[in-house]
Structure formats: C-alpha cells, structure tokens
Amino acid sequence: MDPLFPALTTARGEALRFGERSLTYAELATTAGDLAERLRDAGRVALWATPSLETTVGAVAALLAGVPAVPLNPKSGDSELTHILGDSAPSLVLTEPGAELPSALAGLARHDIDVRPGTDTGAGALPADPDPEAPALIVYTSGTTGPPKGVVLPRRAITSTLDALADAWQWTGDDVLVHGLPLFHVHGLILGVLGPLRRGGSVRHLGRFSTEGVTRELTSGATMLFGVPTMHHRIAEALPGDPELAKALAGARLLVSGSAALPVHDHERITGATGRHVIERYGMTETLMITSVRADGEPRAGTVGVPLPGVGLRLVDEAGTELTEDGPESVGEIQVRGPNLFTEYLNRPDATADAFAAGGWFRTGDMAVRDPDGYVRIVGRKATDLIKSGGYKIGAGEIENALLAHPGVREAAVTGEPDPDLGERIVAWIVPAGPEAPPSEEELATLVASNLAPHKRPRSVRYLEALPRNDMGKIMKRALPRQ
C-alpha cells in the first residue's frame, strides 16, 4: 500500500515555512503524528484553512489518522458555512490558536492546533495508511449552480495526481516551492503543500502574494513558483520596472500557472523579460490534475499541455460521440477517466450519477480543441464560454486572448447573449488600461476579426472598472451585469 507521505520520517531539513515560522520534517512528523493519535476516532473533521503552519499540520494529521478533512474557506459567509457543516457533519474544527471563528461554527467542538517549532520528541511509528479508496479530503465546489457540493477525494486520487505531476515536471525532493495560494482548495493545499511533502522537498508560503516575496524566495533557494493568472499578471505588470524580479524568475526551474487560463499576452511578457516560460496545467476539484505542459516538452502558450500519465481524455460532441478529428474547429467537451477521479458528491447520488457518461467518463463541462500532437486548448465552460453564433461554435477564450493583445485592454471577458438573427451575439467586457481613452468597439472588433475570423468579432463592447473574480482569480461571468 503506497503511503501518502513516504518521506515524512526519512527526509531531513525544512519541510514548511510560513513567514518567520518553519518546521523541519522531524518536527512535522512529531507534531502531526501526535495530533493524528487524537483524531483517530474523530469521524470527519473541519479544517479552518488559514495560510498557516497550523492548517498544514492539521491537514497532514488528519490524513495520517485516516480521518476525512473538510477544508473551510475563512472568507465564506455564514450561510455557505452552515450548508457545508450541515452536509459534511464534522465532529470538530481544527484551527490555529486565537482564530476568531464565525457564528456558523459556534456549535462545533474546537481543537486548537499546538505548533511549537523546535519540538522534536522523536516521532514514533506513524499509523498505517488506510485503503487507497478511503476518503482523504472533502472539498466543496464553488456552487455556481446551487449550494456547494462536497467532492469526496480518495487517497489514490491524491497520490496518483502528485506522482503524475512529478513525472511531468521532473519534481524531486531537491525542489523548494514558493506560493501564496489559499489552503482551502486543490491548488494550494494538495498541489502546493501535499505535493512537496510527498516528494520530500519543502514549501515556503508567502502568506499574502507579493512580487517582493517572490523575488526574496526565488533568490534564496526556491526553485518552483505556483500561481493563478492574477498573480502572474501582477508579475508581468511589475517586470519592466523590477530587474531583481526578472533575475529571480530567470533563475527558477519551473513557473506554473493554474486554476484559470493565463492570457497569452502575459505569457509573452514574462518570457520576454525573463527567458522563462510559464507552464500551464488543467484540472478540477473532481478530477485533480488532467493535463500539463511537461517540463521536458515544448512550451506552448495558450495550451494546457497533454494528458498526464494514467489519465484518459477524450473530446465529445453534443450527442456524446467522441470526436475523431483534431484541429481548431473541432470543439468538444472534455471527458476524463483514471485514478485521479473523485469518488462521489457527498450525499448527492443523483448528482454523482449525472456527472458520468457510460464507461466511467466524467463530464467536465469544459470545452476544448486539440492540436494534432495532443496539446489541449481550453476554449471555456460549456455553460458560459461556448457561444453558438451564426452556425459557428466559438470559444470565448481565444477571443479574450485576442482582446488582451491590445495595449489599451487591461482585462477582458467574453460572453454570449441571445440574438434574433445570430442565435447568440458575442459580447466583450473590457477593463481599459486607461479609462480616460478606452479602445473603441470598432477598434476591438477589427482586431479580433483580423487575428481570428470575422465571425468571432464582438458585436458589443461593455466597459467595467473591474471584472468579478473569486478567491482563485477566476472570472465569475455569471456575476457580470445583465442587460
């Protein structure tokens, strides 16, 4: 049986660092091992997922104990927290000492995690790993189409996805990862914390993302940087006036972006200033990681690379028939299967059944095209980013990239709205780089038509001060003003 943390009792040196506080592997094994013993009969536990040593110790302890952990977003409102707690029914909440918990958690037993760096009493034998199918984490989705659903992730999904990424990224125990991602979701917690710990490497968490923090860590031993597009956009904006940041990024082994598409324009600006390419990967809460540009492969901006080892991927049309031709006009929904998949939506057998097609293929709801050599290009969500206009199927993503190439565009989102003639008309939502003189509707339509095709040009342009985004930096198109 493959242990989740094979390096926990063998690796030496620093495992975790949050600001001025850190834990070695020996300290982590002792602290998490002691807590695991207390959690052994706890059933499920909630985890108040602040960016702290306590959160990471709590997650590791729950995994060692074989107790499913439910990470909670500290920014969630009372109604959402009440739903999650009622649905998952944890026996207690793990939190850092002194944390002020909202009223929704008032009736839940609280356990403050005691983390004292420097304490190494010599960890005893750690618990044997549970069955690979045993639930490890229950991560709640964003709930854009109703209350959040609890995605039950088994241990084999975590180990398989982290090992596939190790293969794709040549990730080893010598790597030091830096990031400032939240720890209540897949990107920050599973990839950004459990990933380094599984390899025997280390992670340095910035607490709050800043380009100064990135520069500091990459110039003092960090080899990898994880971020969401908003973070990489801020890096791209800062690079022209920050030679130290450019130098730090140029020395990194791997720069990774995920959780949403990174605009091609930001790819080009970062590569131009540093000589380094940002690698994109693609996944979901239900699937963990599906594809990635490989460290030993061709960097190709605008793509999420090729399927990871062990992951099956196909594109299907609206009737569910697999597409047999690749190319820019063969748009299909991504369906996947493999050991990386979740087990079920907690307490939702109906939703679980609806999520799968015959043969065990999970319906992602993401639309994509595929290059002849297997590179996947995401064009958007089936529900919000696939626009059917004038008989064409058009992905919002490629239009957004074309718009972002305009120097007068800071942010862009593309949606479709009903049109009596075209079926749907393309609408561009623009945050101008200079609000006093935004690019005109005609100018942007001409840019898209000349770079893509005339039928992909926006028929309407609407200007905003900012686009609505969630905590992971994804644009929330359903929150855009309705006309």
From TrEMBL:
Domain AMP-dependent synthetase/ligase: 14-346
Recorded GO MF terms: medium-chain fatty acid-CoA ligase activity
Positions of the AMP-binding enzyme C-terminal domain: 398-474
InterPro entries attached to this UniProt entry: AMP-bd_C (IPR025110), AMP-bd_C_sf (IPR045851), AMP-binding_CS (IPR020845), AMP-dep_synth/lig_dom (IPR000873), ANL_N_sf (IPR042099)
Any single biological process term in GO: fatty acid metabolic process
Family under the similarity heading: Belongs to the ATP-dependent AMP-binding enzyme family.
Matching NCBIfam families: PRK07787.1
Protein name from the UniProt record: Putative fatty acid synthase
